[in-house]
Amino acid sequence: MANHVSAAKRHIQSEKRRSRNRAAKSALHTQIKKTQGDMGPEAIRLGQQALAVAARKGVIHKKAASRRISRLMKAAQNRA
């Protein structure tokens, strides 16, 4: 257990952030799986949107989101 009040507070805040980020990442993975399964125009739009929102909220890095959107679009074009 933390010896200082500030350390205890940091621990509580980090647990909250971890929980929030895990939920957001899980939702992102689910959305990407659905997008990869469907690959329709609406599904691709939702997949891109989910990645952009995750990057904006800091769940994943901005460049990681960009890379994953690029790969998603490449896969969609190869399927068409």
Secondary-structure map with pairings?
Layout: H1 5-38, H2 41-56, H3 62-79
Helix pairs in contact: 1-2, 2-3
Describe the structure.
The protein contains three helices and no strands. The chain is mainly alpha-helical. The protein has a domain at 26-79. Helix 1 (5-38) packs antiparallel against helix 2 (41-56) and helix 2 (41-56) packs antiparallel against helix 3. The longest helix has 34 residues, at 5-38.
Task: Identify the notable features of this structure and list them briefly.
80 residues; 3 helices; mainly alpha; 0% strand
Low-confidence stretches: none
Strand content: under 5%
Query: If you compute it from the alpha carbons, what radius of gyration comes out, rounded to the nearest whole angstrom?
Result: 17 Å
Total DSSP helices: 3
Helix content: over 70%
Q: Largest sheet at a glance?
A: none
Number of strands: 0
Average predicted local confidence, pLDDT:
95
**N-end to C-end Cα span:** 56 Å
Question: Secondary-structure element sequence?
Answer: HHH
By secondary-structure content and strand pairing, the structural class works out as mainly alpha
Shape verdict:
elongated
Quick overview of this protein structure:
The protein is mainly α. The chain has helices at residues 5-38, 41-56, 62-79. The model has no long low-confidence stretch (mean pLDDT 95).
